[in-house]
Write a structure and sequence with these properties.
The chain is of the alpha/beta class. The chain has helices at residues 3-18, 23-31, 37-44, 104-120, 139-155, 175-179, 197-204, 210-214, 216-221, 233-244, 270-273, 285-292, 337-352, 370-374, 377-390, 405-410, 434-441, 443-447, 452-469, 473-478, 491-501; strands at 51-53, 76-83, 86-93, 124-128, 161-165, 168-170, 182-186, 191-193, 228-230, 299-301, 309-316, 319-326, 357-363, 395-404, 420-423, 428-430, 484-485.
Length: 519
């Protein structure tokens, strides 16, 4: 065969591979509002940067007529490219080929790019759109999943791992995304569950739809499994690219610093009036976040789940940070089981990848009640404390208003190795709020007064005395637990200066195989 014919054969095979399961199935994919595997990669990566691996791989199964059905690439497209010029490895499952089902060779392709990503120290982004294990291959497909899971585990904390769910993801397939750092789902076209509606009905008798069992709304609001939800795949891919702009390539590198045109000494007078005079009145902590960060840009994570705490990424003078903030606008910013778990995992991610943590505190305590105690609030609250205490990245804490009781300790206090702890003049740092404290300290005296008007006056007087003596930032500052009380409008500048001084910070934990975080 002449060289021209061989080249033409190569080009023909490439064309065949790019067609996946064929034009009919591609049209079906588009009709559902979904892109194909390769279209997703093209949108995700910088133009012309994708280098595909294993385009000519096919499955090796001969049972149930599979020996007569072969598609090049075998239901997953793998390779590497760049996002904003930085290398990432990708795999994108192809629903047009055997419903995106996983075979032995399918898993080997994914494992190959994950192994290479670990060798070169680059993130992995997996795009999931699969019917699950390929039944025709039996235990080999199950073994293939386990091979991927093992690599997810080994890569955890070493390279960023991100999962996009743009279609079905069920059964054993859900555990790979669950082991990654972030999960993005798209509305209406994606779902995740271990067992589907049919099995659920057979086993439990419960009748439930696919969407209600494992749709994006369920996992973004109820389970907290989905960190991001997009209106469609195009928006989802833009979110992935934005997320990558805050992350380093691996655990040995720092996150990327970019040029910043937002003045570092910008004063925001709005902040001087944002805390209400009434200590029981709510406000939106996101207003503070957007005011102090570069160009008001804040990428919130898990925005619909456990809304009493806010987490996400931003930049200060071009330096990426993770932000954790109590939200007085929702359940008064109280810490509960879900908010503790949400924030703890985020803190541990930031610490694993050298991302400084900014903590904005306005917390009245832990949520009381039997449901919280029965659900293990002791253990879950300890997760957040453990995460902060274990973290060695720069930690800057600003107490905005309330910081009461055990919740004060948990929220990146000085005793949990907080590097720089600031407070606004409105901060109230104490064992508990004035009302609860006075009930204990002066309960008998108050109970002895029969006139209700006199009783109310005494309570108000005692609460004010307590607030003046204990519930203020200066008592904590007297002992060095607060490094400085700062003017609110100057918060941005003080954070940036703190980040700069902490850029060379070195901290370490005792040698150990691994910690035993209270799970």
């Amino acid at each position: 065969m002449a060289i021209e014919d061989k080249i033409q054969e190569l080009l023909n095979k490439r064309t065949e591979a790019r067609l996946g399961g064929g034009l009919t199935r591609i049209d079906s994919q588009h009709s559902k509002g979904k892109f194909t595997a390769r279209e997703r990669i093209e949108l995700l990566l910088d133009e012309g940067s994708f280098e595909e691996y294993d385009m000519f791989v096919t499955h090796r199964s001969h049972d149930f007529g599979m020996d007569k059905l072969h598609f090049l690439s075998d239901a997953v497209v793998t390779g590497h490219g760049t996002i904003d010029g930085r290398v990432v490895y990708v795999f994108s499952q192809d629903f047009t080929v055997f419903g995106g089902s996983l075979s032995e060779t399918f898993s080997q392709k994914i494992c190959k790019v994950m192994d290479q990503a670990m060798k070169v120290g680059a993130p992995v982004i997996g795009i999931n759109d699969s019917g699950g294990a390929r039944i025709q291959e039996g235990v080999r497909s199950l073994a293939g999943y386990a091979e991927i899971f093992q690599r997810n585990i080994m890569a955890s904390g070493v390279i960023p791992q991100i999962s996009a769910i743009f279609g079905p993801c069920a059964g054993g397939a859900v555990y790979s995304p669950a082991l990654t750092d972030f999960i993005l789902m798209s509305k209406d076209t994606s779902y995740m569950f271990v067992t589907g509606p049919k099995v659920t009905k057979t086993v439990t008798g419960e009748t439930i739809s696919t969407e209600d069992l494992g749709g994006s709304e369920v996992h973004s609001k109820k389970s907290g499994i989905a960190h991001f939800v997009s209106e469609d795949e195009r928006e989802g891919i833009l979110i992935l690219r934005k997320l990558m702009s805050y992350l380093p390539q691996n655990n040995l590198e720092d996150p990327p610093i970019t040029d910043c045109n937002d003045p570092i000494d910008r004063l925001d007078d709005l902040l001087n009036q944002i805390i209400p005079e009434n200590p029981n009145k709510p406000y939106d902590v996101k207003d503070i976040i957007h005011t102090i960060v570069d160009n008001a840009e804040f990428l919130e994570v898990q925005c619909s789940y456990a809304q009493n705490i806010v987490i996400g990424f931003a930049k200060f003078d071009g330096m990426p940070v993770g932000i954790v903030a109590n939200q007085p606008n929702y359940l008064a910013g109280v810490l509960d089981i879900n908010s503790s778990r949400k924030a703890a995992r985020f803190v541990r991610f930031c610490d694993a990848f050298n991302i400084p943590i900014i903590t904005l505190v306005d917390v009245p305590g832990f949520l009381p009640g039997s449901s919280q105690e029965y659900g293990g609030i002791i253990i879950h609250g300890a997760k957040l404390m453990f995460a902060y205490g274990e973290a060695t990245v720069p930690k800057i804490t600003i107490t905005l208003r309330k910081s009461y009781g055990g919740a004060h300790d948990v929220m990146s206090s000085k005793q949990l190795r907080g590097d720089i702890n600031y407070a606004w003049p409105s901060a109230e740092i104490a064992v508990m709020g004035p009302a609860g404290a006075i009930e204990i300290l002066a309960g008998k005296e108050i109970a002895g007064i029969t006139n209700e008007e006199d009783k109310a006056k005494l309570i108000a007087q005692k609460e004010e005395e307590y607030r003046t003596k204990f519930a203020n930032p200066y008592e904590a500052a007297k002992y060095g637990y607060i490094d400085d009380v700062i003017e609110p409008r100057n918060t941005r500048f003080r954070i940036i200066r703190a980040l700069r001084i902490l850029a060379t910070k070195k901290d370490s934990n005792p040698p150990k195989k691994h910690s035993n975080i209270p799970l």
